[in-house]
Records
---
Amino acid sequence: MPIGVLALQGDVREHIHLLTELGSTAVEVRTVEQLATCDALVIPGGESTTISKLLVNFGMLEPVKEFVSSKPVLGTCAGLILLSKEVVGRLPDQQLIGGLPITVQRNAYGGQTHSFEAEVDFSGVSETVAFIRAPKIVDVQGCEVIATLGGEPVAIRYGILFGATFHPELTGAKELHRQFLSAVESV
Ligand code: GLN
């Protein structure tokens, strides 16, 4: 079965391109029916408050929560925010999907003008990625840290759930998706 990429907002095509380059079949997911055809899900970046509203409007919030409880899921940037247990700077009407026992702080590097590219370290493999109005992981709880920037965690893994504060798809960095796909294959 394919890897779904939640296509309510965000860099959907870029994620599909990365997954395809790594040899997977990837499809856009906008409906519960499409979600049901997938083995795993990527939740791209964008704006987490907007994505949460769209999840509610499309009747996808509960189905995605259920999916996260048993299938591999990768959230990047806003996707990571939505998968987090606690969000510092969350707007009152922002719903969370949850699943990752972490605390993140939204817009922790500042606003749009504080977006930047940087080399992150995946235990010896370094890759250039983009941070766009990125959150910071302020409490990793029991998660495995899989990438750091200046010693701080920027990507984590909790069983079959993965999250990163950055956008790998905008620079074509493959390591995060590679690790995710290897978790998908081992399920
Ligand atoms: N700052 C955005 C939010 O809070 C996330 C930015 C992104 O996904 N690039 O949702």
---
Amino acid sequence: MRILLTGGAGFIGSHLCDRLLARGDEVTVVDNLVTGDLQNLEHIRDPRFRFVEHDIGQPLIWPDPVDAVFNLACPASPVDYIKLPLETLRVGAHGAWNMLEIAREKGALFLQASTSEVYGDPEVHPQPESYHGHVNPIGPRSVYDESKRYTEALVMAFRRTHGVRTRMVRIFNTYGPRMRLDDGRVIPNFFTQALRGDAITVYGDGSQTRSFCYVSDLVEGIVALSEADFAEPVNLGNPIERTVLDLAREVIRITGSSSRVEFRELPQDDPKLRRPVIDRARAVLGWEPRVGLEEGLELTLADFSARIARAAAKAART
Ligand code: UDP
């Protein structure tokens, strides 16, 4: 297949790129590198791979045939999207529209990366796809939540109006190698703090929960969805739920760190609970996560330690 993959220089996008190349696809990554990093792609030697630096918020003239568009471009860490509010809204609105136009024109499949944030600070727990969410439309997180909710509406409108073949995945917290060390999300923060011996910053009292999925599991789910004939949104995530404080303790344990926990103010609208119902993914895709939290954290630790050591060695040379 000839694939356009937006956001392919990002954390999840670059792993998906590897997976699609391994399947034998021809992959063009389109990314403006606002939060992505070319280092995530530098290991690729495949002649079927191309990179185009472009902001999909601007129209993309694309003369070549396309079989599938995977639309992953968007800042995804709360720290990033709160710093980039207009970029985040634009990529969900104009960016998705521009890419849907390409899918329509080429007769290509369109797969949209959506998010558990469409459920906001949920009043239904765990969250099935049928839940419509509890989102503050004007709070600091709204730029991401409403951007993704708008994109979901747009995808369905292109499907209903123009018959574009669409797929939609709602991605829950995902982690693994290549996450930016400074992206501000909980797993990179806790690991970098533990490895540097700094205090582990737990926001609020740490009783809020998340359910963490290892990136290879998520990527398998995305590929399976692209191969299935199913247009409704599908939750992909690991239903094993942990409090943030438990996660902090787990990170301290596996790093053998002497860091202590320091409590900080809870950000506004931070969801108190989050866990996916994955019955739909099980039934439609035969998918479920395989990598447990401990194993996934070990794999992530190996990558983070190596990158932190490289950065320290570089700093010592200069
Ligand atoms: N969090 C924390 N300390 C940090 C970073 C995040 O306690 O240094 C908490 C955050 O308040 C949230 C959870 O960890 O409750 C997950 O945050 P993250 O930014 O990873 O993603 P979110 O799930 O909120 O989009």
---
Amino acid sequence: MPTASLPVTSDPSPGPAHVAIIMDGNGRWAKARGLPRAAGHRRGADAVRRVVRGAGELGIPMLTLFAFSTENWARPADEVADLMGLLRHYLRSELDELLRNGARLRVIGNREGLPEDIVRGISDAERQTQSNTRIDVNICVNYGARHEILQATRNLARRVAAGELSPERIDEQHFERELLTAGLPDPDLVIRTSGEQRISNFLLWQCAYAELVFVDTLWPDFGKDHLQQAIAEFRRRERRYGGIGR
Ligand code: FPP
């Protein structure tokens, strides 16, 4: 195949247009200071505020944060309650800040398992911020990529069984439309803090071609400067999408 007909083999835009972050290390941050894990999560929520503001200032169009995975329910009940409490508080206290930052909030994940008042808070914050255009902020809550992929598969299988769709016609676009991120661009850059180097069931389909940057900083210490450094690392990378590059 001539090179000209291949998909884009290198990215001419400075980007990234979409940064996703696996926020990790709250517990270790607290432990190092002899504090309860809840204190680490509280400082983690402060970092969320800083990074959302910083991303807006850096002109990043979309930021996605992994706040609570489907696997996190396995943590001790008091820690789960602390995390839900922080989320509840965030939805109330950060609404003005999101509006000031021109941020549109979306919460991605399975809402069925969440406390009812949080589900209401999410819908309210999403509605109030829906016309903001400076930055899209997606927070993944009760999210697990394998579950998302299974749901998408079930939905497509139902349509096949109903005779609405033939299996041969199922392509990437059909599949993407069934994901919780339908209509959103894939992340260009995924950052994980705290030195761990794993994806942990985060946006598995969507991260197929993302650049991964792992940083040692614990999430409560992460800020705009760290974000800027990760973006600089991203810009040094050559994205080839399976092609042979420049
Ligand atoms: C990982 O640290 C972090 C989490 C499981 C939760 C992330 C939550 C926040 C940043 C605060 C709340 C968020 C919002 C949006 C209000 P860990 O506990 O796994 O840390 P460890 O690996 O050091 O134990």
